[in-house]
Design a protein that fits this description.
The chain has about 80 residues and is mainly α. It is built from 4 helices and no strands.
Length: about 80
Amino acid sequence: AGLLHDTVEDTDLTFLQVELLFGPAVRRIVEGETKVSKLPKLAMGVPQTAETPEAQRQAAINEQAENLRQMFIAMSEDYRII
């Protein structure tokens, strides 16, 4: 599962295909690892969709919070994601 998350990110392989080939448990681990692997990228870049610097900062904070929430949910479902 640790190797498959790169495959899903870098090729046309989908999470559904991972599930069909390896089962739902491996799919959950791959999805969770994909989220965890994105953590270092959270601090990089502020979305440019907001008009003011404060709105851009708030948008970035909201995005980081949502990514962390999803990661914690994935980790609580299967400790192997860590």
